[in-house]
């Protein structure tokens, strides 16, 4: 049988994540599984703000194109980087078990959000993290940063910044949890929809039955339900990945009676206005649960926040 080719971005985090999926496929298929690196404009140029490339979508589409062209069979992404619109010609074949979805602080001298000195500079490129940081500590100086996880951590180690906010999941996968000085609870910092989860796509028309079986086996039901609710909320708010929207869902209960509990928040850029709500519904209706929470948030005044802060 031919090798399975896994398309990945070239960054260390992307290669690590794709390696996790490649290992999982290897364990389920008695086949060779190889990584195919795709370099994107967003990876090559680490300084230009992402918005001028058309947002993080640039990372995703180059990897997808490799699969659509037939240069690879499977694409691996961070699920939170995927636009909510479905991709023509591809399907979301597997959502593997999620890592910790929370954000973390990496600060000098063991700092936490509560103990950072007045006016401390905290790096993040995410409007969602910036807005929630300002809500917690209006005195903080939020500095836009780009670059991979290692570069961001180094800015703290080198003293260029007092702290950065990153995803727990990325640091865990890179074995860099030693740098974490505080895990931010979701009531302080609601993660991005899909944070901590991976997305594995294949061609719509894929006819490799063994590969499709392996992908199905890699899919985690509870993770798929949770991220479906979170992304349905995001889509219904008509907010993109750069909007100050947080969402986090958990699934509980026996199969057949499982429920999904979804919390969502929209925050003004300056952190002064936060609309935050929760809803619980049947796991089988995850999309509807997300849409109904979006309606609640919109009724509570979220539209001005979503629209007012889009680039
Ligand atoms: N924005 C880039 C990005 N996309 C996914 C992750 C981490 C892994 C994940 O959230 O699953 C990161 C880095 C970060 O936010 O710290």
What does this structure look like?
- By secondary structure, the chain is an alpha/beta fold.
- It has three domains: 4-96 and 197-219, Periplasmic binding protein-like II (D-Maltodextrin-Binding Protein, domain 2, 3-Layer(aba) Sandwich); 103-184, Periplasmic binding protein-like II (D-Maltodextrin-Binding Protein, domain 2); 226-308, Double Stranded RNA Binding Domain (2-Layer Sandwich), CATH 3.30.160.
- Helix content is 34%, strand content 23%.
- The chain has ten helices and 13 strands.
- The strands form three sheets. It has a five-stranded mixed sheet with strand order 2-1-3-10-4, sandwiched between helices. The chain has a five-stranded mixed sheet with strand order 7-6-8-5-9, sandwiched between helices. The chain has a three-stranded antiparallel sheet with strand order 11-12-13.
- Helix 8 (221-236) packs parallel to helix 9 (286-299).
- The longest helix is centred in the first third of the chain and has 17 residues, at 12-28.
- The N and C termini lie far apart (47 Å).
- The model has no long low-confidence stretch (mean pLDDT 92).
- Ligand PBG binds at residues 78, 80-81, 149, 166-167, 169-170, 195-196.
- The modification S-(dipyrrolylmethanemethyl)cysteine is found at residue 241.
């Amino acid at each position: 049988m031919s090798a399975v080719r896994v398309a990945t971005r070239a960054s260390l985090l992307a290669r690590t994540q794709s390696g996790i999926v490649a290992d999982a496929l290897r364990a389920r298929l008695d086949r060779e599984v190889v990584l195919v690196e795709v370099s994107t404009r967003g990876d090559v140029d680490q300084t230009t703000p992402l918005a001028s490339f058309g947002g993080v979508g640039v990372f995703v589409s180059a990897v997808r194109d490799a699969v659509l062209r037939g240069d690879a069979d499977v694409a691996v992404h961070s699920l939170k980087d995927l636009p909510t619109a479905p991709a023509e010609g591809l399907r979301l074949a597997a959502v593997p078990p999620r890592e910790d979805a929370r954000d973390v602080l990496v600060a000098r001298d063991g700092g936490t959000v509560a103990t950072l000195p007045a006016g401390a500079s905290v790096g993040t490129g995410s409007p969602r993290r910036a807005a929630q940081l300002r809500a917690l500590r209006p005195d903080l100086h939020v500095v836009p940063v780009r670059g991979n996880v290692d570069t961001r951590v180094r800015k703290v180690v080198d003293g260029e910044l007092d702290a950065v906010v990153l995803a727990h999941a990325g640091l865990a996968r890179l074995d860099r949890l030693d740098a974490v000085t505080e895990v931010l609870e979701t009531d302080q910092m609601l993660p991005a929809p899909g944070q901590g989860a991976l997305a594995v796509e294949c061609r719509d028309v894929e006819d490799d039955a063994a590969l499709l079986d392996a992908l199905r086996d890699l899919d985690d039901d509870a993770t798929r339900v949770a991220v479906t609710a979170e992304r349905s909320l995001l889509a219904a708010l008509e907010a993109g990945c750069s909007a100050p929207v947080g969402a986090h869902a958990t699934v509980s209960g026996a199969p057949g009676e499982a429920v999904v509990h979804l919390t969502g928040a929209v925050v003004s850029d300056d952190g002064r206005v936060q609309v935050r709500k929760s809803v619980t519904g049947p796991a089988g209706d995850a999309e509807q649960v997300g849409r109904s929470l979006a309606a609640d948030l919109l009724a509570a005044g979220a539209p001005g926040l979503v629209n007012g802060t889009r680039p």
